[in-house]
Specification:
177 residues, mainly beta, Porin, 8-stranded antiparallel barrel, two-stranded antiparallel sheet, 1 helix, globular, disordered N terminus
Length: 177
Amino acid sequence: MRAVLVAVATAALVASGCGGSAKTSSASATAAPPVAVPRVPPRDRFTGALRDGSGSLAGAGDVLEARLQAAAGAGTRRLTLWIVSTGCPAGAKCVHLSGRLRGQLTPVRTLPDIGRRYTITARGSLGPVGVATATGTVSGTGNINLGFESLELRLSGSRGSARLSARSGHVPAFTSP
């Protein structure tokens, strides 16, 4: 019986140590509600970390996944943007952002060889920040054998703001969101 209790206590300590980096660092922060995130092509899936936070996002170091889903077309397109925390580096404050924002992708003129670039403007609910806006850019790959798309967003709400710098997995030349 004592061996079972020691094993359970050890497992609890190991679990809290391993998962501790993904837990909220203060009792006052609330976990974001779960969000159903759709499957999107790898070119529309970005991973990055929060930085330069203010207000309730000050010091937040969440690792986020952002997924873009945009209507097909050549001009300005409707956009749905999902943002979900996937964890935190050890010792970082984690606020567990989660939500869906809707807005638009607007093409920016660029030279053909450097790839397509779009501005993003979106608004929606981003727990635990509340109503939030996302503004920034997303850039595709240009004349390159293999590369990454990049995403730069400013997430702002009444309770705080932060920057998200993220990139896609490897994608081929002339890939765009």
